[in-house]
Design brief:
heterodimer; A: 434 residues; mainly alpha; 13 helices; 2 strands; 76% helix; globular; B: 107 residues; alpha/beta; GMP Synthetase, Chain A, domain 3; 4-stranded mixed β-sheet; two-stranded antiparallel sheet; 30% helix
């Protein structure tokens, strides 16, 4: 008889009450971002340091991307470390401060007024991230499991707090000149701390776990993941040093090359997971998640061209705008679209049917949302994304308007489908006992 | 069949009922997936011991699947106390899937 083992690998599920507010907030933020985009298309013909553009970027980065990831990590990290989340209260505090801080900051960007509301917004966002960091740190410290994915997530959180502290300083710098240069000069540093340190590290850390899991693939290669981890951190640290202490554009090819190798390794990791999958039929949600990995190549290519042009002292603003657009509306949005409908239905399913497990016929988690609506959303999103990126590149406002409508449709459909899952009512047929 | 038991008759009944516990992500039941490793019956102490696995070590549905197995065994054998453990020794692999399961998954 097998004896003595505890339930290893048993997920310590976080309550849906902790996770859902983050998901719902993120969905509304996406809707707001697409509405703002629709009414701000002329801004995409201007410099990137423009009120509407800064506002939209931060709605996407904080309201959409970060809130969604915070919610997902509260659910996922306890599963990875086999340790219950340290504190639900800290998670609620994190949500509360971020939920208030983000609109205050964004209103400041939109009006280009960095007075006390924007300053308090930035302080609140930092408080939210600190609560999240403490919660993750204590949860992970209590776990005896060493896990490469958790290391990615924790390091990404450290970079996030560095990013938001840098953001706080930039906001205060508008009013008090606390830094040696103006805030615009530090924008590339702040942006890449967030893009590379937070989003890229996080997406790879989480994606390398979830993509094989949803493909039912037995492929796993921690060696490659550690290489990716060191390459990304090396790239970011070298970029910070070059940015702050050297004024030589050519040096940026060093971090760029490290990122390119890391992305190539992650791409090959996902390909091998796909190749060794047990489930032959891949659903739309995993397909768009895999597509997001491919979409990482777009901003990388644009960045390469931007740096090459900078070598000749040419700053191409549409190219830089397209680069940013491809990050926030591109791979980050694509992977969130896919992963929302792989994780949210499970959270709701667990809430509604957990106590009925095995006792009756219950719907599958994928039946909690409409796959048809998802497909229409996917088509609307991808066509909107391609058109908008093209519209920015050739500075054509008509194309931008059409694309913005398509992105808005995708956001409405996304929220509708999320709402459908969240409001799911139990349907089960209890089996008769023998 | 991968399972080991000390009571073939009761184990057969248990496996039949455990076919109602599905891995929600795959839509296939735990028996045909080959996740049930052991079901032993202690007639003296009126106790059932069930060892099962998951398709992946960090399965977010692990708790639900484990509860499903427990619920079904309790319901099928109301006079017995049920103890379940999740084990990855040996780790699950696709070779453990039954013929019916392979057909279902188009393998």
């Amino acid at each position: 008889m097998l004896t003595g083992n505890s339930n290893t690998g048993l997920a310590k599920n976080t309550s849906y009450k902790v996770v859902l507010p983050f998901y719902l907030y993120a969905g509304i933020a996406l809707l707001i971002a697409t509405v703002l985009t629709l009414f701000s298309t002329p801004a995409f013909l201007q410099h990137y340091f423009y009120p509407n553009t800064l506002a939209i970027t931060h709605v996407m980065a904080l309201g959409w991307g970060t809130m969604m990831i915070l919610g997902a990590c509260h659910q996922l990290v306890p599963v990875l470390i086999e340790q219950k989340l340290y504190s639900d209260a800290l998670a609620y505090l994190s949500f509360f401060f971020a939920a208030i801080g983000i609109p205050l900051l964004i209103a400041g960007f939109y009006q280009f007024d960095f007075g006390w509301p924007a300053q308090i917004g930035a302080v609140f966002i930092n408080a939210a991230i600190i609560f999240y960091l403490i919660n993750m740190a204590i949860s992970m410290a209590k776990s005896k499991k060493e896990n490469v994915h958790a290391v990615f997530i924790f390091t990404a959180t450290l970079w996030l707090i560095i990013t938001t502290i840098a953001g706080l300083l930039l906001v205060y710098n508008f009013s008090y000149n606390i830094l040696s240069k103006d805030s615009l000069s530090y924008l590339p540093l702040h942006a890449h701390l967030g893009i590379i340190g937070w989003f890229l590290l996080l997406v790879i850390g989480v994606g390398s776990r979830l993509i094989p899991m949803f493909l039912i693939s037995k492929y796993s290669n921690n060696k490659i993941l550690w290489r990716i981890y060191f390459l990304i951190n090396f790239a970011l640290i070298s970029f910070i040093v070059f940015f702050l202490y050297f004024n030589i554009t050519a040096l940026y090819f060093i971090p760029l090359t490290a990122i390119a190798i890391a992305l190539f390794l992650f791409g090959s990791y996902c390909y091998k997971s796909y190749h060794e999958r047990i489930r032959k039929k891949v659903d739309n949600q995993v397909k768009i998640s895999l597509l997001s990995v491919f979409m990482m190549a777009f901003p990388l290519t644009f960045l390469l061209i931007v740096i090459c042009l900078l070598l000749f002292s040419v700053s191409n603003i549409p190219l830089i705008l397209t680069y940013g657009f491809c990050i926030f509306f591109g791979w980050i949005t694509a992977i969130i679209f896919g992963m929302t409908f792989k994780t949210l239905p499970f959270i709701i399913w667990n809430k509604v049917y957990h106590s009925k497990a095995g006792l009756g016929k219950t719907p599958n988690p994928k039946e909690l949302f409409s796959d048809k609506i998802f497909l229409v959303m996917e088509i609307s999103y991808l066509s909107g994304f391609i058109l908008f990126a093209g519209g920015v590149l050739i500075s054509n406002e008509i194309i931008l308007k059409i694309a913005a409508v398509l992105l808005l449709i995708a956001a409405v459909l996304y929220n509708g489908n999320v709402w459908r899952a969240v409001t799911h009512k139990p349907k089960s047929h209890e089996r008769n006992n023998q | 069949m991968n399972e080991i038991t000390n009571n073939k008759e009761k184990c057969g009944l248990a496996l039949g009922e455990l076919k109602f516990v599905e891995d929600p992500e795959i839509g296939l039941n735990v028996v045909d997936l080959g996740l049930i490793y052991q079901i032993d019956f202690d007639e003296d102490q009126k106790k059932i011991f069930c060892a099962h696995s998951l398709t992946t070590q960090f399965c977010p549905m692990g708790e639900t699947i484990n509860d499903g197995v427990t619920n079904v065994l309790r319901r099928t054998f109301p006079d017995f106390a049920v103890e379940t453990i999740i084990t990855f020794d040996p780790p699950w692999n696709s070779q453990k899937i039954s013929e019916e399961g392979r057909e279902f998954l188009n393998l």
